[in-house]
Amino acid sequence: MRAVHQKKLRTYFIYISLLLLLLLILPLIYFFFNVYQNSNKPSHKFLSNPKNPDQQKNEINSNSLQSAKKSCTPIISWFPDARQMYDYQFKTEIVLNDNALLEKDSDSFSKETKIIVHVSGVLNFRVFEKPEDWPESSDASLVYVAFQLSSATVKYAEKDLPLQPQKDLKELFQTLFCVAFLKNGLCFQYFFPNDLNEADRSSLSELIYAVQLVLSEKKHISRWIVPEVHTLGRFLAEYRVMDASCQMFEKQNVRCISLIKETSDDTSSFPFSLTGRIVESQFKLSVSELNSWLTSCQGNEQIDLLTQKGKIWSTTKTSVQMNILPFNPDSELSIWSNTINLDTLLSSFFDPQKNLKDRAGIWEKKRIDSLKKRFKNSNLFQMIADLENVLINDGDQSQKARLSHLIHDYFTAYPEAVYQIPGWLKNGTITNKTVGHMMLALERVGHKDAQKVLKSIIMDQGQAENHRVQAIVAAASLENPITELTDDLLGIIEDSTSESGFDEISSTTLLALGILSHTYDKNGQALQAKTIIDQLKLTLENSNNTADKVTCFKALGNAKAAHAIEVIDDYIPKITSSDIEEPAKSSEDIIDSEKKTELSTEVAAILALGKMPESPATIERLIPLLAHERQIIRTATIDAVSQMESPEITTALCAHLISETDENIRRKIIRYLGDHKNETVIKTLEDHLDLSNQHPEKEPISREEAEDVYRALIQR
Q: Between β-strands 296-307 and 312-325, what pairing exists: parallel, antiparallel or unpaired?
């Protein structure tokens, strides 16, 4: 129940956090996102191949463009070492209705916020040739282009205050960066200096997303619809050719497919229900055979985000203008330096002396400044008391989430405030009702002060055990854990091994360390990740307690690390020749206690192996276990492989289905096959329905199993 409550709490906390994120961190991104969606512009070389030029001219003059449009195929031109300049202007106005996300309107929550951002300057464009010594495996279809905005002016305002130039934003937008395009115009990959954080990178990427064009694979086409990915989601964009030479286009974003592209393991959209509605979208684009990329783009757009109840949460109005300029470069700009090539440019972005984890981005600093103004006269103690009151009176979830969100933001604005938490936990100011919200706030804010407080609570044996456990759970979810905290968690495990088994503190710490190892791996901190795996291996080897071994395997599963496979391998059951020769059978015989202990460990090892990165190493260890004599082993194996997508798994399950004697296992296999259909799967399932006719020695399948087969066959 605690896990379910924490999950619900996290969901509501995140959705209010995203409100402020879009409000204060991503106004520019959102602005670009809206602009970009309708300003995706083509820069193509268009081939005009009319059979009869005079006839084509007559058709154009008579406005009969359809046949003329069909006589050309849009193609993007990418000239080696192309150098171009554009006059570039973005304007956006965002109005947010904060109350739209609450179950009830709240006078204590600001009802409307307005944000205005204007960006203008010269967009410099340079195509880089790939060095001759680049690996042959590098994709020849990629075109690498450097961009740098110069003479930039960035103005920003909240509410109805006058627009003011922003020096820090000007510096950000004049950063040199690189984009790898596919030749059809798709933005394939971005390259930024590694001291830029994610929000700042998103702002720069939207400069280019805003003018992308993705061509259709079809030739001689005058209209096409393609999905496009932007910083805040996926949209369907419709393009139309507007002239016979294929040099003028109209573009509309016609539908929002989803909001927020996948950025983590477990979320791919807003954790609350929002729908994007395109109110207006109209852009005109032009290209020239003499230039790479675009020659011009102008247009406007309005996008509303609606809640599940149809309330408008935000309205974003955007306009964009971009026109190619005569080439008159500023020789002082980095992009025009004669000493850089693609190799040196990309190498400069990966400067090991720069660490984006140690600095707040420009948008983050602006958000913190805004929060400090907001909480200037606020009292943390009163916020906690208000939250306690709402929890006691079983207030609605939106009010709980709003107050939790305010506490999180207070910790963001005033990091030193978190040091009051341990004392308030001990004296009862923070009760059991509110402690989960406090731990979640510390986890989500995640700065060093918050992590030091979590560390303090975890290591203080004077704190209540349930408070320490919740602090460990919060520490496990940190995005950028500090070494001191991880070292203390490792110390708990080193000091806890005993014959009697781990207590709740130690068991929770093991599971948390597995998650942190995975986090370190994702962050590129391989040494820290391996240190944790080594400790888990040592704990596994030294423990004589079955429950502790099972917990170790769960922790290794949480780590999801390829190098953990060798740790697990010794505990995977081995298949004997008799297992291979005889069909797998159901095992209902009495198992002695020693065998139960062994099986518990083996099952845990198999399930942990199923969480490892899918690879030949994992597959070749799991597939043979389908033939194991023990039903419990086969069940664990099916559960493990069900998380994988390899064709080898599908083939193995098709072959095993007929010999499996346990109905529950067969039904698991059938459900997996229904999600991975091919011709072999369909034939296997159809044959399974006719099992009693084809194999009279076997009992007919049950009605429930037959229904599973029918569902698997008809599902898409």
A: antiparallel
Closest CA to 469 of 430, 417, 432: 432
Cβ atoms of residues 292 and 144 within 8 Å: no
Each residue's pLDDT tens digit, 370-392:
788 888 888 899 999 889 888 88
Beta strand residue intervals within 582-666, DSSP E: none
The 3-state secondary structure of 420-436 reads: HHHHHHHHCCCCHHHHH
* Measured CA angle at 605 (ends 538, 443), to 5 deg: 70
Instruction: Give 384's contacts (C-beta < 8 A, 6+ positions apart).
Output: 407, 424, 429, 430, 434, 438
Residue 230's pLDDT is 77
Query: How do residues 81-139 score in pLDDT, each as one tens digit?
Result: 999 999 999 998 988 886 666 655 554 444 577 888 899 999 999 999 876 666 554 55
Compute the 3-state secondary structure of the chain and give helix, strand, coil in percent, each to the nearest 5.
50, 20, 30
SS (H, E, C) 216-249: CCCCCCCEEEEEEEECCEEEEEEEEECCCCCCEE
User: How do residues 558-583 score in pLDDT, each as one tens digit?
Assistant: 999 888 898 898 899 876 555 544 54
Residue 147: its H or E element: strand 142-158
d(Cα 373, Cα 413) in Å, to the nearest integer? 9
Go through the domains of the chain in sequence order and give each one's CATH number: 26-328 (2.30.230.10)
